[in-house]
């Protein structure tokens, strides 16, 4: 049984409106894949550069044929079998009927099958794949709760409520170039998990002037305060010891273990990322703590390094991008 909100959202999409909805990663801002006018609205609402393409979301494997030109390779099938529905986005040559607005001028298309009942019911009810970037203004932290979406865009934007998302980080984006798998964006599925399915080494895309994934050119996910990444707790302790001389409000965004290891003066705002040994918990907390800091007067936030294995790769990618100067 489809509930009334879902029915309303599907109807709005069918009529060419933009609707926000939860996925297991973060909230998306969706439109029909075949409606260039609605897709342009997504770019306008987000203030997103038009060369930064969108991810298409499908609910069934049959819907792939609407979006891709060639039959998927055996490697792509293995990944789909292992990780779909779930937070892995694959890049394919695009079907000629897919509007250029979806792909930001590229001849490829990014696709995933979300693992969230609301997202999948919405796609089913609308009847076509939905293209959806994250439901945040370009550059801001990604929304992991419907309240974040409402705060960003107001009540006029229809948003299906799903509470907090389970994963809290974006999907991993993977492309095959000359049969070599390359991660374009580290995310919720780890490099090691993909390597174990493919039985092949997976490389990471290196920053170049013409990146394979245009979205990776931009500063991302950043809180309003300047984020600094400390290499050791001692580095943070030094900052704290000098804190009384500093005029600026200071925030700490750290694991429980690091918080307990420090002597923290009164007046410093502390937010926990969770247990350092539980990278799923740390991932889930990154964006919501960024957003929570945006509701404070803090101007500088100190955070810490995490090991770059498993989910740690995506965690450090988010923290580094957020810490880049404009
Ligand atoms: P977002 O929807 O905000 O998670 O951003 C989507 C990401 O997918 C951006 O970083 C895009 O650059 C990337 N992307 C979308 N389509 C493609 C594509 N055809 N090739 C490479 N990257 C893509
Ligand atoms: Mg985004």
Structure description:
- By secondary structure, the chain is α/β, with parallel strands linked by helices.
- It has two domains: 201 residues, Alpha-Beta Complex (DHBP synthase), CATH 3.90.870; 98 residues, Rossmann fold (3-Layer(aba) Sandwich).
- Helix content is 32%, strand content 19%.
- Strands 1-2-6-3-5-4-7-8-9 form a nine-stranded mixed beta sheet, sandwiched between helices. Strands 10-13-11-12 form a four-stranded parallel beta sheet.
- A hairpin with a 2-residue loop joins strand 7 and strand 8.
- Helix 1 crosses helix 5 and helix 10 runs parallel beside helix 11.
- The mean pLDDT is 94.
- Magnesium ion binds next to loops.
Molecular shape: globular
Give helix % range.
25-40%
Order of helices and strands: HEEHEHEHEHEHEEHEEHEHEHEH
Ligand inventory reads: adenosine monophosphate, magnesium ion
Average pLDDT reading: 94
Number of extended strands: 13
Strand order of the largest sheet: 1-2-6-3-5-4-7-8-9
Question: In total, how many domains does the architecture comprise?
Answer: 2
Distance between the termini: 47 Å
Can you tell me the CATH topology of the largest domain? DHBP synthase
- Rg calculated over all Cα atoms: 20 Å
The unreliable regions are none
CATH class of the largest domain, anyone?
A: Alpha Beta
CATH architecture of the largest domain: Alpha-Beta Complex
Major β-sheet, in short? Answer: 9 strands, mixed
Strand content: 15-25%
């Amino acid at each position: 049984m489809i509930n009334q909100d879902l029915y309303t959202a599907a109807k709005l999409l069918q009529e060419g409106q933009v609707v926000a909805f939860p996925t297991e990663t973060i909230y998306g801002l969706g439109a029909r894949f075949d409606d260039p006018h609605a897709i342009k609205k997504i770019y306008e609402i987000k203030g997103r550069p038009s060369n930064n393409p969108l991810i298409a979301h499908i609910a069934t494997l049959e819907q792939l044929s609407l979006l891709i030109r060639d039959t998927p390779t055996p490697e792509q099938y293995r990944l789909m079998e292992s990780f779909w529905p779930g937070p892995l986005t694959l890049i394919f040559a695009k079907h000629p009927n897919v509007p250029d607005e979806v792909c930001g001028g590229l001849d490829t298309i990014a696709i995933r099958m979300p693992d969230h009942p609301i997202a999948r019911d919405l796609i089913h009810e609308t009847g076509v794949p939905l293209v959806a970037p994250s439901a945040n203004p370009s550059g801001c932290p990604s929304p992991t709760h419907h309240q974040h979406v409402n705060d960003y865009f107001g009540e006029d934007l229809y948003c299906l409520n799903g509470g907090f998302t389970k994963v809290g980080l974006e999907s991993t984006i993977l492309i095959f170039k000359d049969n070599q798998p390359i991660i374009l964006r580290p995310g919720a599925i780890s490099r090691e998990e993909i390597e174990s399915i493919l039985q092949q080494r997976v490389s990471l895309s290196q920053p170049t002037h013409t990146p394979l994934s245009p979205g990776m050119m931009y500063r991302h996910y950043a809180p309003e305060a300047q984020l600094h990444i400390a290499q050791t707790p001692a580095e943070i302790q030094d900052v704290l010891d000098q804190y009384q001389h500093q005029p600026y409000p200071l925030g700490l965004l750290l694991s429980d273990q690091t918080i307990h290891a420090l002597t923290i003066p009164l007046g410093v705002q502390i937010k926990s990322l969770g247990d350092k040994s539980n990278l799923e918990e740390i991932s889930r907390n990154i964006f919501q703590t960024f957003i929570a800091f945006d509701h404070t007067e803090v101007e500088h936030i100190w955070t810490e390094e995490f090991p770059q294995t498993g989910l740690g790769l995506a965690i450090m990618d988010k923290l580094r991008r957020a810490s880049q100067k404009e």
